[in-house]
Amino acid sequence: MADTTSFSALSKPSYSLKPNPQIPQKAPLFILPKTLQKPSLFPQKPCLSHTTHKTHITLSSKNPISDLVSTNKKSPDDLSSYIDDDDDKPREECGVVGVYGDPEASRLCYLALHALQHRGQEGAGIVAVNENKVLQSVTGVGLVSEVFNESKLDQLPGDLAIGHVRYSTAGSSMLKNVQPFVAGYRFGSVGVAHNGNLVNYRKLRATLEDNGSIFNTSSDTEVVLHLIATSKARPFFMRIVDACEKLEGAYSMVFVTEDKLVAVRDPFGFRPLVMGRRSNGAVVFASETCALDLIEATYEREVYPGEVLVVDKDGVQSLCLMPHPEPKQCIFEHIYFSLPNSVVFGRSVYESRHVFGEILATEAPVDCDVVIAVPDSGVVAALGYAAKAGVPFQQGLIRSHYVGRTFIEPSQKIRDFGVKLKLSPVRGVLEGKRVVVVDDSIVRGTTSSKIVRLLKEAGAKEVHMRIASPPIIASCYYGVDTPSSEELISNRMSVEEIREFIGCDSLAFLPLDSLKKLLGDESPSFCYACFSGNYPVQPKEVKVKRVGDFMDDGLNGSLESIDGSWVQAPLNQEVHKVSEVGKLSSLQN
Q1: Could you count the other beta carbons within 10 Å of the beta carbon of residue 559?
Q2: Where is the Glutamine amidotransferase type-2 domain (predicted)?
Q3: Residue of 214, 151, 149 lying closest to 183 (CA atoms)
Q4: Interatomic CA distance for residues 302 and 329, integer angstroms
């Protein structure tokens, strides 16, 4: 390990990152009443009274969900050709948005989904309610700009809509799994868009199938629709409450009916969901505040963990699911998933990442000439490192934003081809320099080793890696696509072994204790399962995941044919994901 005694003037400060004082902070979950204080835009009204509902007749049906709707689907059925071999990062699964009370609701959803595109690139969809109270759906494979155009948005009139961008967790990558889902049942229609992952999905599905339910997709989200349809609760939004109380795991969801928009967040609050409003009074829900910014909606507050918000002509009603005294919000939202300009869990993502870099500069200093970042997610932490260390930050790696999902490699194989397509080293910045390169995380380590090699080939004298997160040692079961635990390099190697594998001169991670100290009194309200293996909601089921260059398409492949840098390790956790693998080459033929 290279010398780390420089910057001796830096002492360990007591870090604190205060929530933005201009942003309303969430109330402790345990004081949530059955009816929460509603935003001042709407008149105060009890959530279970003074509301007119249809008279429902109690009936039973062995198959209550009928006609799962999907229209305008001219794209290829299989998304698997879009696998990115060199993107060695956890994947955020989904982004959701909902709009109530704006005559251009579907177009606002379209723009908001653009802002949330980083949360999912496999598929996108919008469901809108037209003047005849009919739910119309457009879904497709690919980016938002590829799925929607002027004519498709013209098919989605109305002042009520929800939208979704997807990167799959549960469910194979097929068009039929692209959300939002729309289903007709005995008392009307409902659409749903879901961000998260249900850890009891298989058990719920098996029970529903035993009772006669027929499933059209392999997505865990469809379970929610069946639970709503089979619920005996009244009125309709109480069906949603009844259904959600049977769910375990992570879910931030938006629902749409003929006249209502409903937002729900699980009692632990794993995944973010915020509420805002436009100047015309339209109510907007979105996964991140960056979506509100684009459509000129003012951030109002988070949807609280365990809360159900119902928006209709009478205003906003709030209900509480089974309360949990201690939320477990995903810390990786601040490390990697969310955009730096978003406010997530009441904190500025930019400020969080900047301080992560400052901590690294203080606790893992090294003599260096320049600080660079692995773009784009490592940039803010690198700025923090450079500012604290008093070393210039420069763009030593340039990211290409024009690389498509697929590309043709020349017959004469190019080493590290995928990384070179995306990242180009700047020789003038690197040559003869001692370089600190800051990245947000290391997952398998394969991409990091290629980046180090790229920098040294460009003339870097020394390469010191600084990682703005603790080592990832466990898989996520709450809506993030992390590899199985035996693939995670930090689960099977020490920091020194990882340094040797990557080929850098020194390596340091953000200490978990320092991260918790930074969060202060709010530290217990975050989930650190991927760093500790301690799961707030114990996963009870295995989950099909991608392995290396493979995908769960039902084809069989051998572990030996996976990229040579992948190393199999003995299982060391009680619960593990089962990987079904199929040859990528078969998927692309």
Answers
A1: 12
A2: 94-314
A3: 214
A4: 12
Q: 433, exposed or middle or buried, with CB in 10 Å at 0-12, 13-18, 19+?
A: buried
Query: Is residue 12 pLDDT above 60, yes or no?
Result: no
Distance, in Å, from the CA atom of 21 to the CA atom of 341, rounded to the nearest integer, reads 16
Half-sphere exposure of 384 (CA within 13 A, CB side): 27
Q: Give helix then strand counts, H and E, for the chain.
A: 18, 26
The residue behind tokens 């409902």 is 190
Six-digit token string for 547? 């392995």
Q: Per the omega criterion (within 30 degrees of 0), is the bond before 392 cis?
A: no
Give the lowest-confidence range in 123-127, 190-194, 449-453, 481-485: 481-485
Q: How far apart are CA 389 and CA 320, in angstroms?
A: 47
Which ranges in 424-485 belong to alpha helices (H)?
Answer: 427-430, 446-457
Question: Which two tokens mark 520?
Answer: 């202060």
Strands 297-302 and 274-278: antiparallel
HEC per residue, 11-39: CCCCCCCCCCCCCCCCCCHHHCCCCCCCC
10 Å CB burial of residue 111 (0-12, 13-18, 19+) is: middle
Q: Using CA atoms, how far apart are residues 150 and 564, in angstroms rounded to an integer? A: 46
pLDDT over 90 (residue 543)? no
What gap in Å lies between CA 500 and CA 472, rounded to an integer? 18
For residues 365 and 10, give the distance between their C-alpha atoms in angstroms, rounded to a whole number. Answer: 9
Least confident range from 362-366, 430-434, 473-477: namely 473-477
Greater pLDDT, 11 or 410: 410
Nearest to 465, CA basis, from 335, 332, 373, 331: 373
- The helix/strand/coil state of 294 is helix
Q: If residue 263 lies in a helix (H) or strand (E), which one and from where to where?
A: strand 261-265
Cα(458)–Cα(461) distance, rounded to whole angstroms? Answer: 9
pLDDT reading at 580 higher than 80: no
Sign of the Cα pseudo-torsion (291, 297, 301, 306, in order): negative
What does the block give as tokens for 122? 């496999």
- Res. 467 pLDDT band, cuts 50 70 90: very high
- Distance in angstroms (rounded) separating the CA atoms of residues 424 and 432: 17
Q: Is the pLDDT of residue 124 over 90?
A: yes
159-211 per-position pLDDT tens digit: 999 999 987 544 455 677 889 999 888 778 999 999 988 888 899 999 998 88
**What is the DSSP secondary-structure string of 523-553?**
GGGEE-HHHH---SS---S---B--TT---S
Return the active site residues: 94
- The Cα 330–Cα 197 span in angstroms is 13
Output the average pLDDT for the chain: 78
The tokens for 165 are 């961008």
- Are 123 and 51 within 8 A, CB to CB? no
What pTM did the predictor assign?
0.76
Query: 88 and 445 in contact (C-beta within 8 Å)?
Result: yes
Identify whether the C-beta of residue 303 lies closer than 8 Å to the C-beta of residue 263. yes
With contact defined as beta carbons under 8 Å apart, do 106 and 128 qualify? yes
- The helix (H) or strand (E) run that includes residue 385 is helix 379-389
